[in-house]
Amino acid sequence: MGHGLIAWIFIGIVAGWLTGKLMKGSGFGVFMDMVVGLVGALVGGFLSRHLGFGGVGQHGLIGSIVIAVIGAVVLTLIIRLISGNRSANL
Question: Would residue 90 count as lying in a domain?
Answer without folding.
Answer: no
